[in-house]
Amino acid sequence: MSTSNYPQLEGRNDQQLESLANKLATFRNINQEIGDQAVNDNSLINSLSNSFDSMLNNLKHTSGRLTRSLKSGSNIWRMVGLALLTFFILYNLYKFF
């Protein structure tokens, strides 16, 4: 190889090495952004999961209280149902006459 081509090849290699270093830095930045976004998304998912767990527990407790109140006051609910039924029957009769 001639000595006159050596500086040109060395310069071209330096340019390619610099280009490769820039691409590697870009990939590192992208990888860091992906990692940060994954941490943020994981935190959001955990928060949503905790919210849904809390909502499910509240729903279970409310359902239990409703069941207990329906069992303890079945006569009251029958009277309320009968009153509503009577109201709707009278209302429909009133509409027809």
UniProtKB/TrEMBL annotation:
The chain crosses the membrane at residues 75-94. This is t-SNARE coiled-coil homology domain-containing protein. PANTHER family: GOLGI SNARE BET1-RELATED. The keyword Transport applies. The lineage of its organism: Eukaryota, Fungi, Dikarya, Ascomycota, Saccharomycotina. It is found in: Endomembrane system; Golgi apparatus membrane. Keywords: Golgi apparatus, Membrane, Protein transport, Transmembrane, Transmembrane helix, Transport. GO terms for cellular component: Golgi membrane; Golgi trans cisterna; SNARE complex. GO terms for molecular function: SNAP receptor activity. The gene is TPHA0C04000. It comes from Tetrapisispora phaffii (strain ATCC 24235 / CBS 4417 / NBRC 1672 / NRRL Y-8282 / UCD 70-5). GO terms for biological process: endoplasmic reticulum to Golgi vesicle-mediated transport; intra-Golgi vesicle-mediated transport; intracellular protein transport; vesicle fusion. It is a single-pass type IV membrane protein. The keyword Transport applies. Gene3D superfamilies: 1.20.5.110. Residues 7-69 form the T-SNARE coiled-coil homology domain.
